[in-house]
Predict the 3D structure of the following.
Amino acid sequence: MSSIIDISSARFYQWGDECSSWVFLDKKELSIKLEIMPPHTKELLHFHHVSNQFFYILSGMATFEIDNEKIILNSNQGIEIQKNQVHFIKNDQASADLQFLVISQPDTQGDRTNLDEGVIH
């Protein structure tokens, strides 16, 4: 039987600098999360050995660095990041949260290598 899931029933955790994540689907072959990054937050520069990811921006503006290229996405835009691509996401906005879905296939559990603090060049 299928179950309805939303932010009140999803597993919640915080990461980084008060960033939030709700896990909507957590299977070995597929992970779907809703994440919120407050203004002026970023994740560490990293890559995944096995997992491919798709980021879909729900609200706000996301700044990515992917293989040393700066890419900006706005609401209702998405981007695929393939395994072994070095990347991070950042919220450069002064006052607005960044809200996005991140879909990973397979999941990223144990499949992340951090490189540094993720400074955009």
Summary: The longest strand covers residues 19-27. The chain has a mean pLDDT of 93. The CA atoms of residues 56 and 78 lie 4 Å apart. The radius of gyration is 14 Å.
